[in-house]
Write a structure and sequence with these properties.
This protein is α/β, with parallel strands linked by helices. The chain is about 25% helix and about 25% strand. Helix 1 runs parallel beside helix 4. The longest helix has 13 residues, at about 70-80. It is globular, with a radius of gyration of 16 Å.
Length: about 190
Amino acid sequence: MSSKDKEKWNRKYGVDKYIGGKAACDWLTSNTEVLTGNGQALDIAMGEGRNSIYLAQLGFKVTGIDISDVGVKKAQALAEEKSIELKTVVADLDQYEFDEKSFDLVICFNFLDRNLFPKIREMVSPGGLVIYETFSIDFLKYSSFKEEWVLGYGELLKEFQEYRILRYQEVDDGQKGFASIIAQKPL
């Protein structure tokens, strides 16, 4: 990432409203039964914090990380509004040093950096979960995204092939294409 990325996201988040809304993503809320709460959770590229807040409400101790200080400030404001404790980190994910095997849950929504997959696999505790959802190659029909920013068919399955796949989907709903996974690290 770069200072250009930070500037881009600060501009996007630098509006009064929450650009993604304040409610957590559907993939997270529709799979709550797999979230047993009260462990350590990490939200990668958390943006304005809606998914982090949701996890904290379920009992997780959440750390959210994002390159945008504006997004992080909005996440902190949302946490305060909901009386939720949220640890936030402003950092460039290319430079950030993650703790190995320290999270019971790692989530990432609407962000793709393939260099992070090995780090994600390492930082999840044995028995812990990865919940990941982002745009797939089908999204290119509806947007001007670059191909490097979207998942190929089955790519999440390959990245987490040594994990137990609890849920998986690839969706093209006529407006966007995305892939979603919930995977559990072996004990």
